[in-house]
Amino acid sequence: MSRLPQWVGGAGAGLTRLAQRLEEQRRRAEAAEAAAADQDDLRRAEDPPDGLAPPPARAAEPPAVVDGVPHAASPDGSRPVATAPPPESVPAPPAYAPAVAARPDPVAAVPWGVRVAAEAGWRLLVLAGTLWVLAKVITTIQLVVLSFIAALLITAMLQPTVAWLRHRGLARGLATALTFIGGFVVMGLVGWFVVWQVQDNIDSVAGQIQKGIAELKGWLLKGPFHVTESQINQIAKNLQDAVGHNTEAITSAGLEGVTVVIEVFTGILLSMFTTLFLLYDGRRIWTWLLKLMPGAAREGVAGAGPRAWRTLTAYVRGTVIVALIDAIVIGIGLWILDVPLALPLAVFIFLFAFIPLVGAVVSGALACVVSLVTQGVFTALIVLAIVLAVNQIEGHVLQPFILGRAVRVHPLAVILSVASGSLIAGIGGAVVAVPLVAVTNTVVSYLRKYSKEQALRMMPTPHGATALSAAPQQPRTEVAEAGS
């Protein structure tokens, strides 16, 4: 009996909800019928029958406000229905207010040229920073770098001999050993010969230099410059005082010279050791380096490597031949003119020929100075004429014919590379600068062509008329020959 009121209350609540649902469905049906009736009235108003004017539009009644909320009348007009409040209206600006233009996008406001310059600028800064770091690293370990590059040059000069001995049936180890020992023995003999000739002729050259200085002093006293003997003595005294006051600097320079000699011998040993392994295992070393490259760049690097090696080999062979011809011709001229130290000067001319443009000037000037001091002005002028003639023949005949297009580098690039190499690493940098530029030129040219070919391969194959227009055309001569 205690649960009976609960059941009665639940049944009443259910009937109430059912009545509300029925009332809501009835309202929806009435709203749909009213909407359909309104559409019919609107259609009849838009298309009135002949002779009848459309009924006047009924003024809209303002919505009723119930408890502060606007209500609109229901479709049947029985009771109001709550409506959404109208949006807040923004008043128009007054007529005297100035118009404010919208701010453009900052990226679009920057001129195109400035944007391109900025993009290129920061990339150039990154590249310059990378080159600066690389130059610092090379300067720190320049002994190792120069020794390795010298070993590469010596290997390029000796490797054809190893290949020739291999073709004659010798084993790789025996051919490498014979070439290595023979090459460095020849270079050692040349160095020993130069030192021996200088030591053997230094006394006579010193006497001739003193005699030449005395003749120069007499010419200055009797010449058109009106130099007095007291002025000449004062110059000599100033030189002696300068030497006396800078004794400590000269001593430190001598100690630095000893350090340089030790570094030179260390570099020579390192170059010999590197040359031996490059001659014996050069192909394996190159294969190992290729494995370190990324897969996408490996094919291009594999094609650029042999071309770079051919360029380096052609440069070394051509430079050796040109330097040998220069040394022989100028050495014969010095020997005929009875200039002392003719053979050592010829060796110096051969070695300095490995520094393009600058080496020929330095070695020629040295030969002219020795001729002037020992043999007089007339002999020096003849030596100068010989040196200039040999340099002209070298630049216009020997280098184009022997080196050819394999290592063609513009003279401006040669001068800049030699100057940069000498600033970075002294004489060694000047020697290796031009072959590095030549090899870099070859590698960059090949990689550019290779990238273009890869881009053409990745393009879709043309079809139809496009394929006919893109197909290579046969020359007219070939067409005529094929027709005949």
TrEMBL record:
* GO terms for biological process, alphabetical: transmembrane transport
Give the source's domain of life in one word: Bacteria
The subcellular localization recorded is: Cell membrane
The region called Disordered is annotated at 23-90, 465-484
For this protein, the parts annotated as crossing the membrane are 131-158, 170-195, 260-280, 314-337, 343-369, 376-393, 413-439
- Extract the InterPro entries matched here: AI-2E-like (IPR002549)
Q: Does the keyword Transferase apply?
A: no
User: Has keyword Heme?
Assistant: no
| The entry's keywords | Cell membrane, Membrane, Transmembrane, Transmembrane helix, Transport
Q: Which GO terms describe its cellular component?
A: plasma membrane
Q: How does it sit in the membrane?
A: Multi-pass membrane protein
What family does this chain come from, according to its entry?
Belongs to the autoinducer-2 exporter (AI-2E) (TC 2.A.86) family.
- The name under which this protein is listed is Membrane protein
What species was this sequence derived from? Streptomyces natalensis ATCC 27448
Ranked from the top, the taxonomy reads: Bacteria, Bacillati, Actinomycetota, Actinomycetes, Kitasatosporales
